[in-house]
Amino acid sequence: ESSSTGAPVQHNAELFERAKHSIPGGVNSPVRAYGSVGGTPRFLVEARGAYVTDVDGNEYVDLVASWGPAILGHARPEVVRAVQEAAARGLSFGATTPSETELAELIRERMTAESADGVLAPVEKVRLVSTGTEATMTAIRLARGFTGRDLLIKFSGHYHGHSDGLLAEAGSGLATLAMPGSAGVPAPIAAQTLVLPYNDLDAVRTAFATHGDRIAAVIVESAACNMGVVPPEPGYNAALTEIVHEAGALLIVDEVLTGFRVGSAGYWGASLADGPAYMPDLFTFGKVVGGGMPLAALGGRAEVMDYLAPLGPVYQAGTLSGNPVAVAAGLATLRLADLDVYATLDAVSARLQSAVSQALAAEGVAHTIQRAGNLFSVLFSDTPATNYAQVQAQDAFRYPPFFHAMLEAGVSLPPSVFEAWFVTAAHDDVALERIIDALPAAAKAAAAA
Ligand code: PMP
């Protein structure tokens, strides 16, 4: 193994051995261990613009973007300054602050979109939490408290964080590790979650016909991005909303990954441009909304949100909820993420998608570029995938050699075929050319697998 400068990768390997003595698997989140691509994870020490640098001084064009938050590019000076200024005023107060209201107002404003039915504004109230996991966990508790029902529907291959009820047939790290679920989840809790195939409305109708008056909520990724990218079929989210509402249940649209990345009003807002209007009851946000700091949120109908304590009977709390430093990062990031930024993300993504596809086609590698707005992933199959079973049927073995050829050439891709690729507004021509130059050799490696 050698670095982009030809020097042996020593330091990363030594650090990984050392980390494994004190941290399970050497990592604090499983996919970081490179389990499905093999090799030594890079220990990063700096991230700036479109680039990350490892402990050996190797620089990589980054297509992970901290798994989404870095839409503006890493360490954007205005965001760093906002964080520094907030930190200087105090790291955490454990009390209410003016900036939390500003962020809640900004989220409400951003989650407003024009549709054929007029202007829709489904997010009336917002609560800030620290992780996407907390946001979805709270949204589900809220839906149960509001409806007085217990059952939850989720979709196979969708990932909503690691709370007990959501780990059945989940995407992201569970897909990467081929884990159907997690040990440590009591059977009675797992039994409260019904897992259905994605993009199959009949499966949803059947579940409601059987258990309708016991189903509290359906949770769905706005566009599935944790089994690679698998967009909803046109009109799917709208039809789902209708079925759910007819049965008196709530629809939770998880925009932790897509929110404020796929467009100004997330995938929900983007989907209204050419599809029917729909009004989810609750949304969850994370990643971009915290600008790279630990911050996430849930929001939705005031009538539902007001079921949260202190107004209502559903409890949720957090020592670091609405942390002032995290809120400063989120506010600065959202304020800078204007329509020009989204246009840049779309353009960068489109250019990259076609370059990847051309390189793979030139080597005769069967593939499909799966996309949801500016998010995309490579599926190693000629047939587009619309659900988890199809995603799992691809030639996944072609990804590790592709990944490592790119890494050797100084491009950091997600270390799993089941993850989306993330572009940033800092991916300029120089960064894109480095990626594009690396593609032919990587495509050859994939073809030879
Ligand atoms: N929902 C979705 C759609 C996600 O992509 C993720 C994380 N990738 C989560 C929830 C969980 O967020 P967190 O990792 O911040 O707990």
Automatic annotation (TrEMBL):
Cofactors, names only = pyridoxal 5'-phosphate
| TM stretches of this protein | none
Record's subcellular location: Cytoplasm
Keywords of the record: Cytoplasm, Isomerase, Porphyrin biosynthesis, Pyridoxal phosphate
Reactions the enzyme catalyzes: (S)-4-amino-5-oxopentanoate = 5-aminolevulinate
Pfam families referenced in this protein's UniProt entry, alphabetically: Aminotran_3 (PF00202)
What does the record list as GO biological process? Answer: protoporphyrinogen IX biosynthetic process
Q: Name one GO cellular component term.
A: cytoplasm
The pathway entry for this protein reads as:
Porphyrin-containing compound metabolism; protoporphyrin-IX biosynthesis; 5-aminolevulinate from L-glutamyl-tRNA(Glu): step 2/2
GO MF annotation terms:
glutamate-1-semialdehyde 2,1-aminomutase activity; pyridoxal phosphate binding; transaminase activity
Which SUPFAM superfamilies does this entry report, sorted A to Z? PLP-dependent transferases
Q: Which InterPro entries match?
A: 4pyrrol_synth_GluAld_NH2Trfase, Aminotrans_3, PyrdxlP-dep_Trfase, PyrdxlP-dep_Trfase_major, PyrdxlP-dep_Trfase_small
Q: Give the UniProt family note.
A: Belongs to the class-III pyridoxal-phosphate-dependent aminotransferase family. HemL subfamily.
* Protein name in UniProt: Glutamate-1-semialdehyde 2,1-aminomutase
Q: Which organism is it from?
A: Okibacterium fritillariae
